[in-house]
Amino acid sequence: MKFPLPIRHGICAVAALVVVLAVLAGPAMAQQAPIEPQSIVMPSLKAKYEGFTLTAGDAKRIADRLPFVRTERERFDPVRAQVEVPLYYPQDQQRYEVAYNRGQRTLIDIHVDGRTGEVIEQWSGPQADMLLARGYSPSVGGPLNLWYVWVPLALLFLAPFVDPRRPFRLVHLDLLVLLGFGVSQYFFNKGNVDVSVPLTYPLLGYLLVRLAVAGFRPRPRHERLMPYARTTWLVIGLVLLMGFRVTLNVTDSAVIDVGLASVIGADRIMKKKELYTDNDMHGDTYGPVTYLAYIPFELLFPSDGADAEIPAARAAVLSFDLLAVIGLILLGARLRSGREGKRLGIAMAFAWAAYPFTLYGLQSNVNDGLVAVLLIYALLALSSPAKRGLMMGLAVAAKFAPVVLVPLFATGTGEAPRRREWPLFGAVAAAVVAGSILLYLPDGGLREFYNSTIGFQMTRHSAFSIWELHPSLGWLQDLVQLAGVLFAAVLAFVPRRRDMRQIAALGAAAIIATQLSVVHWFYFYIPWFAPFALLVMFSAYRTNESRPIGEQTTGAGLFAAAGTQTGGHRNAAEAH
Questions:
Q1: Helices 147-158 and 338-354, interaxial angle, to 10°?
Q2: Structural domain that includes position 442
Q3: What SS3 state is found at 131?
Q4: Whole-angstrom Cα distance, residue 180 to residue 242?
Q5: Could you give the 3-state DSSP secondary structure of residue 8?
Q6: Which of 10, 264, 374, 413 is the most exposed place for a label (fewest CB within 10 A)?
Q7: Residue 111: beta bridge partners?
Q8: Per-residue b or e along 348-380, where b marks 16 or more CB atoms closer than 10 Å to that residue's CB
Q9: Is residue 565 part of a domain?
Q10: d(Cα 97, Cα 82) in Å, to the nearest integer?
């Protein structure tokens, strides 16, 4: 089946936009200016910050006398103390920050009131080095953290797909597991990473196994996905949810460093400044396509003046969100013919809009929605090796991690291995990735680019993984990483016959396998695999009269091909 004309034009427009912007913006030409610091280092222990009563030395002596500090210093010794004034608090909270560091890491962090000498906060380990892990960051999620926002959304996410007559339907469990990350989020908001972090791994593990099984051994379910909900209701609900998301974002959302860095990078490209610099700030840790994708929004809302990046960052994430919804609706039409396809697409789009963790990133204005969009449209481009190579190249050049999907998408649908398609797919994907990197290669060449991006991500420290909280599990992390690489590689060859639903299932499983092994994992990464997961979970449910059109066009349909046998044809649905 040919790619529909509007989608073909859309994909070509995306590619053309990236190429045109890259050429117009031009290669890097200047050195990167430092990003705004988060604290002021006191020049000496005798120095006193303006408006404070105590000197830096007074704050250090108070911290040194704490039993907590003495115990932790024995544990982490040797460490050196540095007194700073944090700038990430309101101005009325006048405090010194006594940081005990080893190298670039803060191992103990004590906050002392600069007027009274009262000890305000005490942190050690990963939480000393990460503000995000301390439970007092209202910028992450914003109003979504309120129970009267989160719970209604969760109920809306579940309601259309619940069948009380069949309480043990698999889709019920699937959706509850997707919502289960909210339990971890609750403890994260409390600053209890020792509980919040381990709680994510059973959920990711379930989804990995569930989706891998769906990819290798797909099984249709002959019952309605939505036993009671009408398509009209979902359309109305989708419109209202999208309006709610836009309103909440515009009126009460924060732009955290991820979104700010994306806009700043786009601004630097437009001003012909160097994009990548190997320093300690790491605003340039993403691929070139991420910054290129923000250029249209930077053009609409130029980042000149205080907080000027905020409108561009918000416009970008809202646009990515809309593109994701449109892509899911198109995927439904691709998988089913007629009314069933529209109903499936609307169901996936509704679930995306109601899912709290797609709103979580939206409320923090991060760039992870771009990854979801590129992967959704890569799935829509499955029929053509050049088109899916283009979309996969854009995804890899945006955030690197989608490289684990390259073997799977290189083969595509149908009979594996389809080696004749590999050269064209590989050439297009490699041209996009290599071309975008070479255009913005820093003065230090590939080494500096690597150190700023992939190298930083692979060597960073984070409170959001069991590998960092429990370094003794390093051997297990190595095994998980190796297993993830082998799993991604083998998907170029097995299963031998695969359709779009299987590609989505195995793609989501490969992404989750990668996320299980990384040092830094956060809730923003859930939307990377959520579209694929929703497609797999929802498209398995079909009524007898619905006809899967997407699979049949590939020559290896889940329902059509599996039912073909010697001596006649049998519907695959009857075999189950």
A1: 160
A2: 5-33+138-545
A3: helix
A4: 23
A5: helix
A6: 10
A7: 97, 121
A8: bbbbbbbbbbbbbbbbbbbbbbbbbbbbbbbbb
A9: no
A10: 8
Q: CA quadruple 165, 171, 177, 180: dihedral positive or negative?
A: negative
Q: How far apart are CA 138 and CA 145, in angstroms?
A: 8
Q: What separation in angstroms does the CA of 35 have from each of 38, 248, 260, 283?
A: 9, 28, 10, 8
Distance separating alpha carbons of residues 541 and 544, to the nearest angstrom: 10
The tokens describing 152, both together, are 């209604």
- How many Å apart are CA 475 and CA 575, to the nearest integer? 44
Both 81 and 206 in a single domain?
no
**DSSP assignment of 26-87:** -S--SPPPPPPPSEEE-S-TT---TT-SS-HHHHHHHHHT-HHHHHHHHHH-S-EEEEEEES
Same domain, 14 and 143: yes
Long-range pairs for 72-79 at CB < 8 Å and ≥24 separation? 72/100, 72/107, 72/108, 72/124, 73/100, 73/108, 76/100, 76/102, 76/107, 76/108, 76/124, 78/102, 79/107, 79/108
The alpha carbons of the chain give a radius of gyration, in whole angstroms, of 25
Residues counted in the chain = 576
CATH assignment of the domain containing 122: 3.10.450
Euclidean distance between CA atoms 100 and 116, whole angstroms: 21
CA atoms within 13 Å, Cβ hemisphere of 296:
12
Prediction pTM value: 0.85
What's the rounded Cα separation, in Å, for the pair 351 and 353?
Answer: 5
Instruction: Compute how many other C-beta atoms are within 10 angstroms of the C-beta atom of residue 488.
Output: 22
The verdict on 340 and 420 lying in the same domain is: yes
Cβ atoms of residues 508 and 536 within 8 Å = yes
167 and 56 in one domain?
no
For residue 515, the one-letter residue type is Q
Element (DSSP H or E) covering residue 570:
none
pLDDT in tens, 468-507: 888 899 999 999 999 999 999 999 999 988 999 999 999 9
How far is it, in rounded angstroms, from Cα 533 to Cα 177?
11
Give ∠ CA 279-283-284 in degrees, rounded to 5: 80
Six-digit token string for 151: 């719970």
- Work out whether strand 568-569 and strand 80-86 pair parallel, antiparallel, or are unpaired: unpaired
Answer with the one of 71, 97, 129 that is the final residue of a domain.
129
Does one domain contain both 29 and 45?
Answer: no
CA dist 146 and 476 (Å) reads 36
The backbone torsions φ and ψ at residue 194, rounded to the nearest 5 degrees and listed phi first, read -65, -20
Structure confidence by residue, pLDDT tens digits, 287-325: 999 999 999 999 888 866 556 678 899 999 999 999 999
Residues of the chain with pLDDT under 50: 1-4, 6-7, 9-11, 14-37, 545-546, 548-576
Residue 347 near residue 226 (C-beta atoms within 8 A): yes
Instruction: Give dist(CA 152, CA 430) in Å, integer.
Output: 44
CB 129 within 8 A of CB 106: yes
Give the count of domains, the chain: 2
CA distance linking residue 117 with residue 496, whole number of Å: 69
